[in-house]
Amino acid sequence: MQRHLISAADLTRDDAIQILDTAEEMARVADRPIKKLPTLRGRTVVNLFFEDSTRTRISFEAAEKRLSADVINFSAKGSSVSKGESLKDTAQTLEAMGVDAVVIRHGASGAPYRLANSGWIDAAVINAGDGTHQHPTQALLDAFTMRRRLVGRDAGLGQDLAGKRITIVGDILHGRVARSNVDLLHTLGAEVTLVAPPTLLPVGIESWPCEISYDLDATLPKSDAVMMLRVQRERMNAAFFPTEREYSRRYGLDGDRMARMPEHAIVMHPGPMVRGMEITAEVADSDRCTAIEQVANGVSTRMAVLYLLLGGAVFDAKNAPAATHTRTEEK
Ligand code: NCD
Asked: N or C end of the chain, less CB within 10 A?
């Protein structure tokens, strides 16, 4: 494993499988009465969020706390960043406080890479989403969810996703989830098809290791998992499709469309969902939709990433001691 996690493309097949297997061990900790391990006791992790987030921020915080790290939350709103402070100055301030890892979400593609390679800080850097570029822990938690559902919780250990057919639908141009997933799923041997209006596909998509289709109905029967993505309105500066109704009609997943999927196939969504746009409430609330499961799996996956980046070896839940300090002591 490298020292930082900047892009899903940096992970080898062995790295990815090690993270997914470690995440399964971490998930066992969630089944215990005390869901806490002493592993990162005395280590400090900063969550540096320059962009809005619900799931990712809370999920990282939960993962850090379950590993007993000291957690500092920083959001750009209400900080000196709104007074014009640069990323460099913010980073050096954190360095001066002695942090061991920085989890960063930033609107600019490449910000985590800059932070990791600039020499401003010594800490391990984990990308929690940068612009339209990458969101590697999302890809890992998605792969974890697919492996569990499509291969099996125990049967999946040590396995990749060879031959699994994954369809990703929606705003590929402005999103970072599709890009990260294509990279990781390719490394894990899955066959990926992207479905989107031509206007929501990036230039150079031909070189991505996946198929492209404009026909959702034709792709659904050949999918083991269908991942619906949000249209990223906040990143759009033009009209990319005629109307929302027209978009939903062609690229939205409703009950009728879901019925075209094979019986074992799952519907995935990284959140936030815009019900009525890319997914109907009927599909979002159905048993086949793993959106909530993905959130739970996100905590285990991020625990695994933090554990491995901050120097852990093979993790064995059975023999790991529980954290000895209780909530009262922490106060
Ligand atoms: C995604 C993101 O922020 O890239 N959400 C997430 O991390 N769960 C996708 C989105 O915003 O649509």
From this structure: C
